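Re: How this chain folds, sequence and tokenised backbone to follow
How to read it: Take the token row as a discrete description of the fold.
Start of record: The labelled sequence and token lines come straight after this line.
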Amino acid sequence: MNQKLAVALKRDDQREAAGMHADDRDTCHTHQCWASECEDQHTPRPTTRNQ
């Protein structure tokens, strides 16, 4: 992992902890890469919950 990605992951983690929705991440924490590079490896998460 390069330094730029490590910084971006930390930033996204902090923003998510502060309330940002996980779908708004610029990085993919699961695959340790940029989200656009691995978007086809994820099932989209629903934005609302069925109640």
The mean pLDDT is 84.
